[in-house]
Specification:
single chain; alpha/beta; five-stranded parallel beta sheet; 5 helices; 5 strands
C-alpha cells in the first residue's frame, strides 16, 4: 500500500533543498510525494488540484523557514491538513514561534548545521505514519475477514 506525502513549502531557497530531499527519499521508499506548485494567487482559495492532493494525502509535511508561516498558501495548506485526519509533520526553523500545540507536537526543527539529521528525523516521522497506516489497514482486514468467516459459518 503506497502512502501519499503532501509537501507544503514557502518557496524559500533556504528550504528547497530539504523539500526536494524529502520528496526524493519518500519516493525511494515507495511513497508518492506531491509538491504543490505556486502558480496561483495566494489571495484566492487553494486551487482544486492542490486541495485534492492535500485531501487524499496520508501525511502533510510542512517545511517553513523564518517567514514561511506568514504566507497565505502555507497557512491554507497547514489548515487543510489540520482539518482532516491527516498526519502533520512540521519541519520548521528554530526561529519560528508556534502557538498551536498540535503543530508543536509534530515539529521537526531544521538544523542548518546538520541537515542530514533533520531529514532523518522528518523521514522517521513519515515512516512512522506509514507503519501506523499499514497496521490499521491490516487490523481492518482482519476484522472484516473474521466477520465474513463467522457469517459463513452460520449457514452450515
Amino acid at each position: 500500500m503506497s502512502s501519499s506525502v503532501f509537501i507544503s513549502h514557502s518557496v524559500s531557497p533556504a528550504e528547497l533543498g530539504i523539500v526536494y530531499a524529502i520528496s526524493e527519499e519518500a519516493a525511494r521508499r515507495g511513497m508518492q510525494p506531491y509538491i504543490p506548485d505556486r502558480q496561483w494567487n495566494p489571495e484566492e482559495q487553494l486551487p482544486h488540484r492542490i486541495y485534492s492532493a492535500l485531501q487524499s494525502a496520508d501525511v502533510c509535511v510542512a517545511v517553513a523557514t523564518q517567514f514561511g508561516t506568514q504566507l497565505p498558501w502555507v497557512n491554507a495548506e497547514i489548515a487543510g491538513a489540520l482539518a482532516k485526519p491527516t498526519a502533520l509533520i512540521a519541519v520548521f526553523d528554530s526561529t519560528l514561534p508556534v502557538q498551536d500545540p498540535q503543530i508543536e507536537s509534530a515539529r521537526v526543527t531544521i538544523m542548518r548545521d546538520n541537515v542530514p539529521a533533520t531529514l532523518a528525523r522528518a523521514l522517521q516521522k513519515i515512516e512512522q505514519v506509514r507503519v501506523e497506516q499499514t497496521q490499521k489497514t491490516a487490523l481492518t482486514w482482519l476484522v472484516v475477514g473474521g466477520l465474513l468467516f463467522l457469517l459463513t459459518q452460520g449457514d452450515k
